[in-house]
């Protein structure tokens, strides 16, 4: 049964936000697969936002609200059917209808969630739209990891067979993303590919005498190996492959993501600051990632 916001709190687990779009429905199925893999409950939510001024005539407002509520109820019904096809009848699934703008509603619910799952675009947004406004806002101001499900039809029966890919840059901001990726690689029985970029400046093609590539490469290989050593002990069953690159990481991450089942990045990089919305790497990947992308915030990113 669909709950309305304000009812007794229930365990959220994995939170999938839907709006009736095909992208959101596919994302809900991905969320169900993720919830099944981690044995977590699934919550599916939809927001009713009135697209008319609050001072409009009461009868018109009521008519609009009823129509929008009905549309959300239908979207939730379709999503529940889809996720039940993945999870079966016994897995805990809850649907919730929020009344009001989606961003604050999802953000509030996400405070108790393990992961928020969103489609890469919503109703009314063109196929060329890289990420919907709700998606961008939740990544910028959310309170837990956000999965943006791209390259997903909704017909898949599993999360995929490729590697899990994570981007790191040596800053503390990337530690939560690395841990998330390791947990996922272990849960999925996947190889973890770690892409380490030591510079944010595009250096490819430069041949300056003072840029001693071999020395820098050896140094950064050692830095990455040292940073991974403790994690490898915690996740001994995960095979870790690593690559050090010496320019902006986006194109390298996209290359690795071509056959990946998941791409994980931090919310902001080495040059980030507490009030920064979204780092350049995560923002660029929202436009181009060929597989589901998870953006993980660090503790200082709220």
Could you characterize what this model shows?
With 302 residues, the protein is α/β, with parallel strands linked by helices. The chain has helices spanning 22-38, 58-87, 102-110, 133-141, 175-188, 213-234, 250-257, 280-288, and strands at residues 2-4, 13-17, 42-48, 93-99, 113-119, 146-149, 164-168, 192-197, 240-245, 262-266, 293-296. Strands 1-4-3-2-5-6-11-10-7-8-9 form an 11-stranded mixed β-sheet, sandwiched between helices. Helix 1 packs across helix 2 (58-87) and helix 3 packs parallel to helix 4 (133-141). Residues 126-131 and 270-278 have low confidence and may be disordered.
Topology (SSEs and partners):
Layout: E1 2-4, E2 13-17, H1 22-38, E3 42-48, H2 58-87, E4 93-99, H3 102-110, E5 113-119, H4 133-141, E6 146-149, E7 164-168, H5 175-188, E8 192-197, H6 213-234, E9 240-245, H7 250-257, E10 262-266, H8 280-288, E11 293-296
Parallel strand pairs: 1-4, 2-3, 2-5, 3-4, 5-6, 7-8, 7-10, 8-9, 10-11
Antiparallel strand pairs: 6-11
């Amino acid at each position: 049964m669909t709950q309305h916001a304000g009812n007794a709190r229930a365990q959220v687990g994995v939170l999938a936000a839907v709006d009736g779009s095909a992208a959101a429905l596919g994302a809900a199925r991905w969320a169900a697969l993720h919830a099944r893999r981690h044995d977590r409950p699934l919550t599916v939510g939809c927001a009713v936002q009135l697209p008319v001024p609050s001072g409009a005539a009461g009868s018109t407002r009521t008519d609009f609200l009823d129509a929008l509520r009905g549309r959300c109820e239908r979207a939730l019904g379709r999503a529940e059917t889809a996720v039940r096809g993945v999870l079966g009848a016994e897995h805990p699934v809850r649907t919730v209808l929020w009344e009001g703008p989606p961003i604050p509603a999802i953000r509030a619910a996400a405070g108790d969630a393990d992961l928020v799952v969103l489609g890469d675009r919503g109703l009314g947004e063109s196929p060329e739209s890289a990420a919907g406004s709700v998606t961008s806002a939740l990544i910028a101001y959310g309170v837990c990891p956000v999965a943006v499900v791209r390259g997903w039809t909704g017909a898949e029966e599993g999360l995929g067979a490729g590697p899990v890919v994570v981007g790191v840059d040596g800053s503390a901001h990337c530690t939560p993303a690395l841990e998330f990726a390791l947990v996922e690689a272990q849960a999925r029985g996947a190889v973890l590919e770690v892409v380490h970029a030591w510079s944010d400046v595009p250096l490819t093609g430069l041949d300056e005498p003072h840029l001693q590539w071999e020395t820098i490469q050896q140094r950064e290989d050692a830095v990455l190996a040292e940073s991974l050593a403790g994690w490898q002990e915690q996740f001994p069953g995960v095979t870790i492959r690593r690559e050090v690159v010496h320019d902006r990481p986006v194109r390298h991450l996209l290359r690795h993501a071509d056959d990946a089942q998941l791409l994980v990045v931090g919310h902001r990089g080495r040059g980030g600051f507490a009030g920064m919305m979204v780092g350049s790497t995560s923002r660029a990947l929202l436009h181009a990632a060929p597989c589901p992308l998870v953006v993980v915030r660090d503790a200082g990113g709220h």
